[in-house]
Amino acid sequence: MKYFLDSAMIEEIEHAYEHWGIDGVTTNPKHILSSGKPFLAVIREIAAVFRGVRFPISVEVDPHLSGVEEITSAAAKLAAISENFVVKVACTEQGLSAARRLKRDGIATNITLVFSPAQAIQAGRIGARFVSPFVGWKETNGEECDTFIKEVTTIYRNYAFETEIIVAAVRNARHIVDAAVSGAHIVTAGFAVYKDSFAHPFTDHGLDVFTRSWDETEAAFDG
Ligand code: E4P
């Protein structure tokens, strides 16, 4: 399973790449805002970190744009900045149409803001590079997500869609595990979510027990 980091913070991205072996980055306008830098500056900075390395970086097309032509041309401009850029396009009729055109022009897209299996089907049919079903937002809205992701993964297997499923808006380790059990290709989560997922209180407790035993053995045989 691939891990993408959902962030626009350079320090987080560098740390997660070097120490955790993340496989890609996803950004969105909220992450750009949190980075405290202008949009183009921050996406160029992320691109520079991975110059010469094949590493998918999802960048969102201006969400003001709603026409097929304007989405297509703005996405093409973004894609021209870095060969690693995958343009995030919202799952609307126009966004999906733009994504079809972009695919014909060799530009990879990530169909984002996906909240139903039916939306995910069209992303797979048009051959988008990625589809991003959001679990965290649905759960906040009181919706159950396990079935959602299981249906999307089953449908994609049934039809051998090439589009890779990124389970997005992942809030905790349980979401990561559920996505893995469903057979989703990728999860994208924030820095703290991954960090927490690597730890367990029993691991810390076990280290205490083993350290004390080690020290007692050393003390018993000292000299
Ligand atoms: C995915 O590509 C999105 O950037 C992300 O998961 C959105 O969710 P969040 O910013 O609320 O975590």
Tell me what the structure shows.
It is a single chain. The protein is 53% helix and 17% strand. The protein has a single domain (2-221), classed as Aldolase class I (TIM Barrel, Alpha-Beta Barrel), CATH 3.20.20. 38% of the residues are buried. It is built from eleven helices and eight strands. The mean pLDDT is 97. It is α/β, with parallel strands linked by helices and 223 residues long. Residues 6, 26, 28, 30, 58, 112, 132, 134, 136, 168-169, 188 line the site of erythose-4-phosphate (E4P).
Draw up the topology in text:
Layout (H helix, E strand, L loop, with lengths): L1 E5 L3 H11 L3 E3 L2 H7 L3 H11 L7 E4 L7 H14 L3 E6 L2 H12 L4 E6 L2 H9 L4 E4 L2 H5 L5 H13 L5 E7 L2 H10 L3 E4 L1 H7 L3 H20 L3
Parallel strand pairs: 1-2, 1-8, 2-3, 3-4, 4-5, 5-6, 6-7, 7-8
Helix pairs in contact: 4-5, 6-8
Which CATH-level-2 architecture? Answer: Alpha-Beta Barrel
Q: Regarding CATH, which class?
A: Alpha Beta
Helix content: 40-55%
Rounded to the nearest angstrom, the distance between the terminal CA atoms is 50 Å
Rg computed from alpha carbons, rounded to a whole number of angstroms: 20 Å
The CATH topology name reads: TIM Barrel
Strand order of the largest sheet: 1-2-3-4-5-6-7-8
The dominant shape is globular
In this entry the ligands are: erythose-4-phosphate
Quick summary:
The protein is an alpha/beta fold and 223 residues long.
List keywords for this structure.
223 residues; alpha/beta; 11 helices; 8 strands; binds erythose-4-phosphate
